[in-house]
Amino acid sequence: MNMSFNSINEVSRAVSKEVHSHFCLPSDREDSESRQYDLICFSHLRWDFVYQRPQHLLSRAAQNRRVFFIEEPIFDEGSMRYESYERDNGVVVVVPHLPQELKSVIAIKVALSGLVDQILLRNGIKEFLAWYYTPMALEFTEHLRPVVSVYDCMDELSAFKGASSEIGLRERNLFKEADLVFTGGQSLYEAKRNHHHSVFAFPSSIDRNHFAQARDSLQDPCDQSEISHPRLGFFGVIDERFDIDLLRSVSAARPDWQFVMVGPIVKIDPNELPRAKNIHYLGGKNYQELPGYIANWDVALLLFARNESTRFISPTKTPEYLAAGKHVVSTSIRDVVRPYGEEGLVSIADEPEQFVQAVEKILIGDQEKNEWLERVDAFLADMSWDNTWSQMDALISNKIQEKKALQEREDAAAPETVAVARAS
Questions:
Q1: Is the N-terminal amide bond of 230 cis, ω within 30° of 0?
Q2: d(CA 24, CA 400)
């Protein structure tokens, strides 16, 4: 599938068209063949860390099948074991624990492989779908024989701080093993499409109703209520992708503006972050709380640095900010510029002076909000995590049918092959 589009709506429609042109899709989602099987996910992310793409997709998958979300191991005292607990959405989160003295790569591989086998045995999992967020998990799961395996490539993990030097090799191996590859954005799709025969772009989507709550007058959260206006807000993980220097410069240039940073600080030294009276770090919040924070901002920010770790990102918060009815100023992240910047839905600025000017233009009301909101709503109309999962599920179901048909042909040909061999 070779695509180049200027809007996520076009991407979504093209993916849907591509799926329908290649396969006979089930007319009723209840007929999806993939629902006969459990789904086992292997992730580098913690389920309860930040609610993002994996949670949106797998919670929908769990509506019709058992879903097991296996996290990376925790090394601590005690014996090799795993903990599991079911979340409200039905997803079973599994946390492996390994002895902290276990250092050998081979020993860790063997231990995790054994734990995975235990999980399958104790839960009666026989036929299943394998879903990978990290290629590193292939090392201890290559002995498994899933009905279909999916690599949901949501980020270019090799570019992240602290990434394993082996992740590139592991990903190449996963491309060989996976039946389907999904990417978290158009840029990432373009980078991966020549590495696998079945790559599909599924950019960040939204739960519109959840974030649309922010368009109403929601109560200001306690830790934000005493902060004066105008408020410029950001929510998300604050890590090596965050543009520290831009925040420092813009906050210094406009000390009368208040900068509200909502999200956990990880992989960077908190002491490196700019500190000023008009910068407020409120820490991580749960997904249900976010509309209350956004509702009481004046402008939403995408403060991403331009570096290798952000080259292929497709920030989920872009459509979420827009669904909340907030004007957005972003740095020139490719999957934000195209399509949001090109469509005039998001202001793009990289240099501090440009960033200040873009915010000022929003604050003084140069942009007609009603007309802008109409264009936002029209653009977001076809976007939803429900639609995204439905399209993914259809691809999985048809891959199952394709593999079954191939196996039936091979089985039918087997007696003829044996007869020829005996005659010779």
A1: yes
A2: 12
Task: State both tokens at 4.
Answer: 């180049």
What is the per-residue pLDDT across 159-196, written as a single tens digit (0 to 9) for each?
787 778 889 999 999 999 999 999 999 999 999 999 99
Helix ranges (H only) for 236-295 are: 244-253, 290-295
At residue 158, the pLDDT reads 84
**CATH code of the domain containing 122:** 3.40.50.2000
* Residues 98 and 220 grouped into a single domain: no
Question: Is 331 within 8 Å of 306 (Cβ atoms)?
Answer: yes
Query: What does the pLDDT look like over 346-395, one tens digit per residue?
Result: 999 999 999 999 999 999 985 577 899 999 999 999 999 999 999 999 99
Is the pLDDT at 136 greater than 50? The verdict is yes
Identify whether residues 230 and 88 lie together within a single domain.
no
Task: Give domain status of residue 401, yes or no.
Answer: yes
Q: Which of 203, 150, 199 is nearest to 40 (CA)?
A: 150
Instruction: Determine contact, residues 317/214, Cβ cutoff 8 Å.
Output: no
| The pair of three-digit structure tokens given for residue 203, joined into one six-digit string | 């950019």
Is 401:224 a contact under the CB 8 Å cutoff? Answer: no
| Locus of tokens 């279909």 | 148
Answer whether residue 142 is part of any domain: yes
For residues 246 and 169, membership in a common domain is answered with no
Q: Is residue 81 part of a domain?
A: yes
Same domain, 396 and 259: no
